[in-house]
Design brief:
Blueprint lengths: L15 E5 L6 H11 L3 E3 L3 E2 L14 E2 L2 H9 L3 E8 L2 E6 H9 L3 E6 L1 H10 L4 E7 L3 H11 L4 H15 L7 E4 L3 H16 L4
Parallel strand pairs: 1-7, 1-8, 2-7, 3-4, 8-9
Antiparallel strand pairs: 3-6, 5-6
Helix pairs in contact: 1-7, 5-6
The chain binds adenosine-5'-diphosphate (ADP) and guanosine-5'-monophosphate.
Length: about 200
């Protein structure tokens, strides 16, 4: 398959849901809930150039690759979108991943940062549902990142600084889900995605 030729997602009935949020807002947690309840969805495994965290598995959590390998693939046009989310840490979606999921007859489910989410929505304006997960406050976000305990303090602060700019982008998404009480946010996300899958949104 030639990965440089984007396939027409409407011709294949290819559809996508995009969950974006500042790091720590809860998009991964909410996405996991949707994947458990909606068998039509299949998670798009991104490529990234940061090292795996303990417990992360190559091919399941990310396609881990070196920065030179990532940049060479970008040169060859293998990515639908990619960006340097944090200095030296590149993240992106491979065309091969979309082809694989659509060939399975599934809807692609994305968990990407805010800029990536908006880029994807621009690429697939009528076949994608773009959802912004909003934290109750910047301070709550900081506390969640500290409690998750996956980043150094310095990296937590870098993510928090970036979050303020990202939250200003929320109105550009199709819809916003406030993640204050997790169970409520999960329920709201599940009902709006279910409705969209049925063609009601
Ligand atoms: P993201 O994928 O947006 O970076 P995660 O889903 O990893 O965020 O969530 C960040 C942390 O916050 C995790 O430890 C998660 O368990 C926790 N979390 C998610 N939603 C809530 C919530 N509503 N209230 C409190 N903690 C939450
Ligand atoms: P983490 O290092 O915490 O796994 O992810 C850092 C950020 O990169 C998160 O905001 C995550 O959503 C984002 N990200 C993950 N995959 C992609 C992708 O394919 N494209 C873009 N643009 N961002 C991504």
């Amino acid at each position: 398959m030639n990965q440089n030729i984007p396939i027409d997602s409407t011709a294949t009935n290819g559809r996508l849901i995009i969950f974006s949020a500042p790091s720590g807002a809860g998009k991964t947690t909410i996405m996991r809930h949707l994947l458990q309840h909606l068998p039509q969805l299949e998670f798009s495994v991104s490529a990234c150039s940061r090292p795996p965290r303990p417990g992360e598995v190559d091919g399941r959590d990310y396609h881990f690759m070196s920065e030179p390998d990532f940049r060479a693939r970008a040169e060859r046009g293998e990515f639908v979108e990619w960006e340097e989310v944090y200095p030296g840490h590149l993240y992106g979606t491979l065309w091969s991943e979309l082809h694989r999921i659509w060939a399975n007859g599934h809807v692609v489910a994305f968990d990407v940062d805010v800029k990536g989410g908006l880029n994807l929505k621009r690429k697939f304006p009528s076949s994608a549902l773009a959802v912004f997960i909003m934290p109750p406050s910047v301070e709550a976000l900081r506390q969640r990142l500290l409690a998750r305990n996956t980043e150094t303090l310095e990296k937590v602060e870098m993510r928090v600084r970036r979050a303020e700019l990202e939250m200003a982008q929320a109105p550009s998404f199709d819809t916003i889900v406030l993640n204050d009480v997790l169970e409520e946010a999960q329920g709201q996300a599940l009902s709006l995605v279910s409705e969209w899958l049925l063609g009601g949104l």
